[in-house]
Specification:
The chain is an alpha+beta fold. It is built from two helices and six strands.
């Protein structure tokens, strides 16, 4: 099984695409900040129309699965997805098909 790294910017793009689909707005109207906390793990602060919403790790994975399906045309459920904190790359996702 090959392991592919999904870069931090692609995770942000995935969340923008996912939220724009849910809120029926343009993807560039969504702002995202990825966060890692030793106590709480991974999350994302998402800003839409001046309001902030926090996505937990499972919602970030759901957004990346949506992105894989719609933008990359890869079967999103045939893969194992795992968020990791990389010292050089920041927050990344490992995709194992």
């Amino acid at each position: 099984m090959e392991e592919v790294i999904i870069a931090e910017q692609d995770i942000v793009n995935a969340i923008c695409l996912f939220m724009s689909d849910k809120k029926e707005i343009a993807p560039d109207a969504v702002r995202v900040e990825l966060i890692y906390d030793d106590d709480y793990g991974f999350s994302a602060e998402v800003y839409v129309d001046g309001r902030m919403q926090v996505l937990v790790e499972s919602s970030i994975i759901e957004a990346v699965r949506f992105w894989l399906d719609t933008a990359v045309q890869v079967d999103p459920y045939a893969a194992s997805l795992r968020l990791e904190l990389d010292p050089q790359e920041g927050i990344i996702m490992l995709y194992q098909a």
